[in-house]
Write a structure and sequence with these properties.
A five-stranded mixed sheet has the order 12-11-10-9-13, sandwiched between helices. It has a three-stranded antiparallel sheet with strand order 1-3-2. Among the domains are: about 1-60; about 225-340, Endonuclease, Chain A. By secondary structure, the chain is an alpha+beta fold. The chain is built from twelve helices and 13 strands. Helix content is about 40%, strand content about 20%. It is elongated. The longest helix is centred in the middle third of the chain and has 28 residues, at about 205-235.
């Protein structure tokens, strides 16, 4: 080949899928461009450039944030074989996805750095992959990969998993706290889902993470309480007494509830536990025992999930209204003392 003769890149609509001109060596070969020609086009002064091993950008100049994301994903998909795994292993069927700070930026986190400022883009892959980090692509291996979410056309880890992968590489407690708080305050996910992922990643042994989780849980509960208050007001329910402790007169303490209607003997509790305990985590029977104790006294206990209060407040208000209306047909409840928390 005459290297003094300029090469004209093949038409992008023949080479790139969609509008992102990032392709691997294998993909270019499938389009009839042999590796030797790819190397020639990526030489200094050539029309293309190599972004990562085996991954090429079909123009010169700095890559955009989308091009860097697609390059990292293509590198993870096409480089390195897989270790043989059992057919039932869930990680064997998941494609790579963006995670960590890059994923949080895609999800719209104000506390995450802009994509173009990130030195590395983390890509979550199955732990069976024999693949090393290279250039700006940092490989994160995991078991039981979550289903990716499509964000601007990019497969992206859900917020709780992306947070855990980001926190694993952060030592600044203030940054961790801002990210965790924004996850709940911004309506991206519930606090329990974040705690579950941090527990799975064994990050709760780090003091700065524990401090951030305390702030996260307080933020999540405060938001859930406000949404419960708004649901009661917006849907015309009678006013309860808020945040009270219940006790049998002269008897034992029965626990606290978030709202209580004494004339109906109906209590509401905000249930911030994970919907399902993580693998290896013990169940929390204390909450169920508390509910059973109240119901033995004739008090109806309605559990509210923070996610339901956020996504379907009318549905939650209907459940509470049904419990209040059913009070007329029940046996009178035992008298309990209602005390402010």
């Amino acid at each position: 080949m005459n290297h003094d003769t300029p090469l004209s890149p093949l038409p992008l609509h023949h080479l790139a899928d969609g509008s992102c001109p990032v392709l691997t060596t294998q993909e270019l070969r499938a389009h009839g461009v042999p590796p030797a020609e790819v190397a020639d086009r990526c030489r200094p002064g050539g029309p293309w450039q190599q972004l990562l091993p085996g991954v090429h950008l079909l123009h010169q100049g700095p890559p955009t944030s989308q091009e860097r994301l697609h390059a990292a994903l293509r590198y993870a998909r096409h480089r390195g074989p897989s270790v043989p795994v059992q057919p039932r292993a869930p990680e064997a069927v998941r494609d790579p996805m963006i995670t960590g700070l890059a994923a949080l930026a895609l999800h719209g986190f104000a506390a995450a750095p802009p994509l173009l400022s990130l030195e590395r883009i983390e890509v979550l892959v199955a732990r069976s992959r024999r693949l090393r980090s290279a250039g700006f692509a940092r490989i994160v291996r995991g078991a039981d990969l979550p289903a990716p979410q499509q964000v601007t056309g990019v497969p992206t880890a859900p917020v709780p998993r992306a947070l855990a992968d980001a926190v694993a590489g952060l030592a600044d407690g203030a940054v961790v706290r801002r990210l965790l708080t924004e996850a709940v305050r911004g309506g991206h996910c519930e606090a329990a889902a974040v705690v579950r992922e941090l527990t799975r990643a064994r990050l709760l042994a780090r003091p700065h993470v524990v401090d951030a989780v305390d702030a996260l849980l307080a933020e999540g509960r405060a938001l859930a309480e406000q949404r419960l208050y708004d649901a009661v007001r917006a849907h015309g329910l009678p006013d309860p007494v808020w945040n009270v402790d219940l006790r049998l007169p002269g008897g034992p303490y029965l626990g606290g509830v978030d709202a209580y209607w004494p004339e109906y003997a109906v209590a509401v509790e905000i249930d911030t536990r994970p919907a399902r305990p993580a693998a290896g985590e013990p169940a929390e029977p204390a909450e169920d025992e508390h509910r059973d104790a109240l119901e033995r006294l004739g008090i109806t206990v309605v559990r509210c999930r923070p996610r339901t209060l956020r996504e379907a407040p009318e549905q939650q208000a209907t459940v509470i209204r049904t419990a209040l209306m059913a009070a007329a047909g029940r046996e009178p409840a035992a008298y309990v003392a209602v005390l402010p928390r």
